[in-house]
Design a protein that fits this description.
This protein has 413 residues and is of the alpha/beta class. Among the domains are: 5-62 and 91-175, Rossmann fold; 180-300 and 343-363, Argininosuccinate synthetase, chain A, domain 2, CATH 3.90.1260.10. It contains 13 helices and 14 strands. The strands form three sheets. It has a five-stranded parallel beta sheet with strand order 3-2-1-4-5, with helices on both faces. It has a five-stranded antiparallel beta sheet with strand order 10-9-8-13-14. Strand 4 (112-114), helix 5 and strand 5 (139-141) form a beta-alpha-beta unit. Helix 3 packs parallel to helix 9 (283-299). The radius of gyration is 25 Å and the shape is elongated. Keywords: Amino-acid biosynthesis, Arginine biosynthesis, ATP-binding, Ligase, Nucleotide-binding. It comes from Hyaloscypha hepaticicola. Residues 178-402 form the Arginosuccinate synthase C-terminal domain.
Length: 413
């Protein structure tokens, strides 16, 4: 009688390698799934490892373009940011990974999908909410929430011992001081020594970016061109023009990485209610978002920008962070993002230097909300200073009443 199949999100690391062996031990045929979202990974070696452990098949899906065009660029369009600091690098990758894993599971006739997310993190929520939206009848096996698994493997050392007994080759050691997750947008670091929020992250932990103190003494300039809020062109300091979305993103990453741009160290609020310390490197996305924000100052209507910031930006980031990408509210917000960005066209001249992103100038050939003669202190232009007297008088009506009421009560403003 044929065994039931499970599609496992596999990384080649210690946790998922042990989960693979454990699922086989439980009597399943396991199909491994790996997503290439731009992480520096030897996929062929990981695939060979999965098959050696006993997987019946292993898929490696290239999702980089999908990741950039469907997730990263819309995040740039609305300046998505979580708790004012986190650019959502991990959150952005989860929808495309989950969607591709479900496609593989359907193709292979799997009754369940499985993952190696911990029972205390956000990713278990992100993946599983996506799975259920994409295939409502799917079964999910989450080993780190099953007592028979987490009681058997109480910590990393137990996994290493199991791997050794099962003949699973692993590169991890018992002294590894943190965990990492990498994709094209960022690299995250958490757990281990980082769980103490007052412990300074070691200088050798950062994988993607040069230490800003050791970055080049000469700044590097480049230009970003946007159409309808989307990055469409990057012109390097040597005059090379890049228009392909993946190549543009890779070049923005390369420029920012060699100048130490995009590092943050934060304590954030996880969706499940716990606080967590995380360190993140988000080089290229930091530059793209910052340039986009700057261009909006030139071309975007004030009230449209305010409404977008207050409602769309905050809620879109929250939806991404909490794993609600495959939801009606996300579809609604993305339509609002597109509507807000139809006039965000232009170019931003940028500079990176020792960890900093600097705007040198911005311009637009199509949008004319900015009028230098009206704003100038050196000429009157079409704007009459006398008109401001009436504007101030109207704005002051309410405040005068407020001041009078305070005075009557003897209260000090």
């Amino acid at each position: 009688m044929a065994k039931e199949k499970v599609c496992l999100a596999y990384s080649g690391g210690l946790d998922t390698s042990c989960i693979l062996a454990w699922l086989i031990e439980k009597g399943y045929d396991v199909v491994c799934f790996m997503a290439d979202v731009g992480q520096e990974e030897d996929f062929e070696a990981a695939k060979a490892k999965a098959l050696k452990i006993g997987a019946v098949a292993c898929y490696v899906e290239d999702l980089r373009r999908e990741f950039i065009e469907e997730l990263c660029f819309p995040a740039v369009q609305c300046n998505a940011i979580y708790e004012n600091v986190y650019l959502l690098g991990t959150s952005l990758a989860r929808p495309v990974i989950a969607r591709s894993q479900i496609k593989v599971a359907q193709k292979e006739g799997c009754v369940a999908v499985s993952h190696g997310c911990t029972g205390k993190g956000n990713d278990q929520v992100r993946f599983e909410l996506a799975f259920y939206a994409l295939q409502p009848t799917i079964k999910v096996i989450a080993p780190w929430r099953l007592p028979e698994f987490y009681e058997r493997f109480a910590g990393r050392n137990d996994l290493l011992d199991y791997a050794e007994k099962a003949g699973i080759p692993v590169s991890s050691t018992k002294s590894k001081p943190w965990s990492m997750d990498e994709n094209l947008a960022h690299c995250s670091y958490e757990a281990g020594i980082l769980e103490d929020p007052d412990v300074t992250a070691p200088s050798d932990m950062w994988k993607l970016t040069v230490d800003p103190l050791k970055a080049p003494d000469t700044p590097e300039d480049f230009t970003l061109v946007f159409e309808k809020g989307l990055p469409k062109k990057l012109i390097t300091s040597k005059g090379k023009t890049i228009t392909d979305s993946v190549e543009l993103f890779l070049e923005a990453n390369a420029i920012a990485r060699r100048h130490g741009v995009g590092r943050i160290d934060i304590v954030e609020n996880r969706f499940i209610g716990l606080k967590s310390r995380g360190c993140y490197e988000t080089p290229g996305l930091t530059c793209l978002r910052s340039a986009h924000i700057d261009l909006e100052g030139l071309v975007l209507d004030r009230e449209v920008r305010a409404l977008r910031d207050q409602f769309v930006t905050f809620n879109y980031a929250k939806i991404l962070y909490n794993g609600l990408y495959f939801s009606p509210e996300r579809e609604f917000l993305e339509e609002s993002i597109v509507a807000s960005q139809k006039n965000v066209n232009g170019q931003v001249r940028c500079r990176v230097y020792k960890g900093s992103f600097i705007v040198l100038g911005r311009s637009s050939e199509t949008e004319k909300l900015y009028d230098a003669s009206e704003s100038s202190m050196d000429e009157i232009g079409a704007f009459s200073p006398e008109a401001t007297t009436g504007f101030i008088a109207v704005q002051a009506i309410r405040l005068k009443k407020y001041g009078e009421a305070k005075a009557e009560k003897g209260e000090r403003l």
